[in-house]
Amino acid sequence: MSLMEHGAVRPVTAVAWTSNSSTCPKDFTLISITEDGATANFTRSFAMKSGYYLCYSKDLKGGMVVSDIQLISDKDSIPHGYCFIAEHLEAKASVWKKKRVCVRMVPVGSVDTAVLDIKVTAKSKMMLQHYTYVGDVHGYVLWCRKGHFSNPMPQAKPRSMSLDLRQLSIDQPVAPLPLRPSNPPPPLLNNKLSQRRHSLHNKDTGDKSADGSIPGLTALDGVPFSLHPKFDIQANSTALQLNSQLNNIRIKSLQDIKNEYNYTFAVEESAAKRIRPSVPAEGVPSAQ
Fold first, then answer.
1. Which ranges form a coiled coil (predicted)?
2. Cα 115 to Cα 10: distance, rounded to the nearest angstrom
3. Second label for 232, Cα 20 to 30 Å away, from 19, 71, 160, 217?
4. Is 119 in contact with 36 (CB distance < 8 Å)?
5. Which of 219-255 are b and which e, b meaning 16 or more Cβ less than 10 Å from the residue's Cβ?
6. What are phi and psi of 242, to 5 degrees?
């Protein structure tokens, strides 16, 4: 069984007209010879110096595939979901307009079958096995093969290995290196508070985990929690006493706090505004 029957082929992603190999777009395959050995030039007129050929692409970068190909007359309207194929021709070249080739483009992830190959024959009596007849175009017959296609899986980008990983061996295991913080703490200041923090830091190093990381400790860890005796229901005789005490608590508003603790600095302002006595200069009698 061939690879095409297994579905291990890429689908056709674009079809176009081209004048020759120089005007054929990149990543396109030019159909220059028919299956029965004739030239696949669709121009039969001797007055035409430039011909036109069919070409197709299987580049999946665009994310679209050709699911169907049809030939329609120039008087017929294009079917829904189809579009005319592109033309990459020379300046004086033109395509036979009585019949137009149109294709249906769909996203690659929306279908599992698509057009896998396109062939051209010069004799309408010749039949191609496993191919579907599309139609006659200017004395040529267009065929296409449909089937399941294989969507290539994206390849992972190679990662650069460090020197330490290259030196790893199964026979001689290497001990893991200690972890180093990327942002070390600032240098300690020469005062009592910094020395105390330094001593506490040295004591905490004994509680580090095996991987070198410091567990999340807070200042309240290890401190027992208890209520004040006057708010403890069990310490008092009844809960009514607690309620009466709580009711006596006055919740002050922001304005009450400002009124109670407001200080106008009037004494300081009056002291600053006092006129300082002037000192008389030597030899000049002071004014009485």
1. none
2. 9
3. 217
4. no
5. eeeeeeeeeeeeeeeeeeeeeeebeeeeeeeeeeeee
6. -65, -40
Predicted pLDDT at 5: 46
- 181: which 2 tokens? 């913080």
Token match 């006595």: residue? 277
Q: Please, what sign has the CA dihedral across residues 42, 81, 128, 123?
A: negative
Count other Cβ atoms within 10 Å, centred on residue 143. 20
| Bridge-based pairing state of the strands 14-18 and 86-88 | parallel
The 10 Å Cβ neighbour count of residue 280 is 10
Q: Is the pTM for the entire model greater than 0.70?
A: no
pLDDT in tens, 231-253: 665 555 556 666 666 677 778 88
Checking if the pLDDT of 157 tops 80, the result is: no
148 C-beta neighbours (distance < 10 Å), count: 16
Contacts with 274 (C-beta within 8 Å, 6 or more apart), sequence order: none
Is residue 165 very low, low, confident or very high in pLDDT (cuts 50, 70, 90)?
A: low
Residue whose pair of structure tokens reads 């599309």 in the numeric block: 134
By CB atoms closer than 10 A (0-12, 13-18, 19+), residue 54 is: buried
